TrEMBL record:
Gene3D superfamilies: Aspartate Aminotransferase, domain 1, Type I PLP-dependent aspartate aminotransferase-like (Major domain). The lineage of its organism: Bacteria, Thermotogati, Deinococcota, Deinococci, Deinococcales. Coiled coil: none annotated. Keywords: Aminotransferase, Pyridoxal phosphate, Transferase. This is Aromatic-amino-acid aminotransferase. Its cofactor is pyridoxal 5'-phosphate. GO terms for molecular function: pyridoxal phosphate binding; transaminase activity.
Length: 411
């Protein structure tokens, strides 16, 4: 305090009503149910199937160290300097070449979550109809919610989005945007078939609906045959990269390491142009050195790392499914993912998975209740399990404890 400024009597001071000063957009924000649960699971005795965390023991630590030194040697002080908003040119070129599109149609973002937030900012006006799967990725709902969308839930089954139901919705409901996770969906682990993908692209093209394809797990297939991306089908449908109504988002977080926060968006030029402006206002650019490190890893380390992660997650998924079959009572349904990090449990209708979580924690096992993954509510008898960051011994003990918890809830 300036000694020449008289002190203000404490009795006259009144703290601002911070809640009243918040914007309408801030009032629509919600805390992540997963992040709140993860606070509980920090206790060392808890077996957590809650967070969708990549397995840290699989991180290419030494390779990242070498890539960091290589980037610093190659670029010198430029590796630590401000850079262009669009992203590190060699990284954008690699992504563009892989997709068969110009680098100009690629925007680097700081994690897929930022990509979703920026897309929500530039595409969603208050009241716009946004189509989402039921259930859908909770992080997308968090990203879009502040911009005031009007959600319409698309029914799903074991094959993903019900396309007959989607067509019925589009006939009667003008929609601006459809958000989908077609590969090993978070939270269910389901995969949209090639036939349904093609029909989805055609329907949304006919009805003038933009599609956001979120694909962080697509490289992590451990069984079955890969299907073309919605973006690829959209490019085929439109015949021009700048007429493609599908926007593609992906990330290196699940294939390399999550902490570098390197991800990207592929889209038509008008979308990329606005993304650049939105990102300039958010953080100017994704960290320069992080992009350079990832670029050093692309040709040799990334392919090996993908195979390593695929193998490990496939083994863990099979182990978890085997123990579920042994330990869970009849009447419990579950998905059988072909890749990714998650599977989905549907309990008998009388069980509320949020209430059951309290009982599960007394047995030192945690999961994510299904309800937060539904934009308009529902799914009280569902839950998500992640097998990616669990040892075989944890999977065995945790699924046994969860089976006991379910049986207790049925009594």
């Amino acid at each position: 305090m300036n000694p020449m400024t008289p002190a203000r009597p404490a009795a006259q001071f009144k703290a601002p009503d911070f809640t009243a000063l918040l914007s309408d957009r801030a009032r629509r924000m919600n805390a992540s149910a997963i992040r709140e649960i993860l606070k509980i699971t920090q206790q060392p005795d808890i077996i957590s199937f809650a967070g969708g965390l990549p397995a840290p023991e699989l991180f290419p630590l030494e390779e990242v160290r070498q890539a960091t030194n290589a980037a610093l040697d190659r670029y010198g002080p430029a590796a630590l300097q401000y850079s262009t908003t669009e992203g590190h040119p060699p990284l954008r070129e690699w992504i563009g070449n892989r997709a068969g599109i110009p680098a100009a149609n690629v925007q680097i973002v700081t994690g897929s979550q930022q990509g979703l937030d920026l897309l929500g900012k530039i595409l969603i006006s208050e009241g716009d109809t946004v189509l989402v799967e039921a259930p859908t990725y909770l992080g997308a709902l968090q990203s879009f919610q502040p911009y005031g969308p009007s959600y319409v839930q698309m029914p799903t089954d074991d094959g993903g989005i019900d396309l007959d139901a989607l067509e019925a919705i589009l006939r009667t409901t003008p929609a601006k945007l459809l958000y989908a996770v077609p590969n090993f969906q978070n939270p269910t682990g389901r995969t949209l078939s090639a036939e349904r993908r093609r029909r989805l692209v055609e329907l949304t093209g006919q009805y003038g609906v933009l599609v956001i394809e979120d694909d962080p797990y697509g490289q992590l297939r451990f069984t079955g045959e890969a299907a073309p991306s919605l973006y690829e089908l959209g490019l085929e449908y439109a015949g021009d990269v700048n007429a493609n109504h599908v926007i593609y988002c992906s990330s290196f977080s699940k294939t390399l390491v999550p902490g570098l926060r390197d991800a990207w968006v592929q889209a038509a030029a008008p979308i990329i142009s606005k993304l650049i402006q939105a990102k300039q206002g958010a953080d100017l650019h994704t960290p320069t050195l992080n992009q350079m490190i990832v670029t050093e890893l692309l040709d040799e380390v990334l392919p090996r790392q993908i195979e390593r992660v695929r193998k490990a997650y496939g083994e863990r998924a099979a182990l978890m499914l085997g123990h579920i079959e042994e330990e869970f009572p009849g009447g419990v349904d579950f998905t059988r993912p072909e890749g990714g990090m998650f599977l989905w449990i549907t309990l008998p209708g009388q069980i509320d998975s949020t209430k059951m979580l309290v009982r599960a924690l007394t047995r030192n096992v945690a999961y994510v209740p299904g309800n937060p993954f539904f934009a308009l509510g529902g799914g009280e008898n569902t839950l998500r399990l992640s097998y990616s960051n669990a040892t075989p011994e944890q999977i065995e003990r945790g699924i046994k404890a969860l089976g006991e918890t379910i049986r207790e809830a049925l009594d």
